[in-house]
């Protein structure tokens, strides 16, 4: 019964990407963004994701340049960090998630916010020029925007792809409307997630399929 299926990983990837390119309407996207979109769709199976994709003109070049220059990658969730394929990273970039830092629960209590948002406080020292990848927690994205507005370092690019029903759409809309000079890539609405965000990062990290 299970005899007829494809066992070659490279062939599975090749067919997947060919299917996505055949079914998704990528025509309105610049080539560099289309490559990122393909990998995001690959992570979730939704070819209509393109409809909700929004990005600033410089987002992909800025993220690619920052990664090549060795910028750290800050992730809101371990799931995002775990999904980054280390061998694709162009400069052995640090992939950092501070959610499990021992100081975070206390910080969350004192700030009156979630652990995800409190963990963003620990990014301050290396935020300038970094690549930020938010795939889970809307509060982390809101907090990042507040921090940058209050004078914290400005990341080179922000992938704002949190998922969910409470604050997800609003946090992404706020990122897209930012007047802080932040380059961004978002998925409007409720859709998002760690896998999709890691997929976007993996596309930015290397042009290899
Ligand atoms: C409100 C939260 C939401 N979480 C969602 C979806 C998923 N979260 C998973 C896991 C394992 C984690 N979520 C936390 C980040 C946790 N989730 C929250 C918070 C309560 C608040 C975040 C926010 O609203 O901004 C948050 C806890 C916090 O205080 O920050 C997590 C840290 C909880 C924990 O285990 O302690 C943890 C992240 C672990 C990591 O580092 O990777 C899920 C796997 C769900 C599950 O466990 O059942 C899932 C993953 C989705 C994904 O693709 O990333 C929502 C839906 C995003 C939700 C926020 C919106 C909503 O409810 O409407």
UniProtKB/TrEMBL annotation:
Record-annotated Cobalamin biosynthesis precorrin-8X methylmutase CobH/CbiC domain positions: 11-206
GO molecular function terms listed in the Swiss-Prot or TrEMBL record: precorrin-8X methylmutase activity
Taxonomy, superkingdom: Bacteria
Family, per entry: Belongs to the CobH/CbiC family.
Pathway(s) of this molecule: Cofactor biosynthesis; adenosylcobalamin biosynthesis
NCBIfam families noted in UniProt: PRK08285.1
Keywords attached to this entry: Cobalamin biosynthesis, Isomerase
Record's protein name: Precorrin-8X methylmutase
Biological process (GO), any one: cobalamin biosynthetic process
């Amino acid at each position: 019964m299970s005899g007829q299926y494809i066992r070659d990983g490279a062939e599975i990837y090749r067919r997947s990407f060919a299917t996505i390119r055949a079914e998704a309407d990528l025509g309105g996207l610049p080539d560099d963004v289309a490559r990122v979109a393909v990998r995001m769709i690959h992570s979730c199976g939704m070819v209509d994701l393109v409809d909700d994709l929004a990005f600033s003109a410089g987002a992909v070049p800025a993220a690619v340049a920052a990664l090549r220059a060795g910028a750290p990658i800050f992730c809101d969730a371990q799931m995002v960090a775990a999904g980054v394929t280390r061998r694709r990273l162009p400069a052995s970039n640090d992939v950092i998630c501070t959610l499990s830092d021992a100081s975070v629960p206390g910080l969350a209590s004192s700030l009156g916010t979630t652990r995800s948002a409190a963990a963003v406080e620990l990014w301050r020292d290396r935020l300038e020029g970094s690549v930020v990848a938010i795939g889970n927690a809307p509060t982390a994205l809101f907090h990042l925007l507040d921090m940058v507005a209050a004078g914290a370092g400005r990341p080179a690019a922000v992938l704002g792809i949190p998922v969910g029903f409470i604050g997800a759409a609003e946090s992404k809309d706020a990122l897209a409307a930012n007047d802080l000079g932040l380059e961004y890539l978002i998925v409007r609405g409720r859709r998002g997630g760690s896998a999709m965000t890691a997929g976007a990062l993996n596309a930015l990290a290397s042009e290899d399929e």
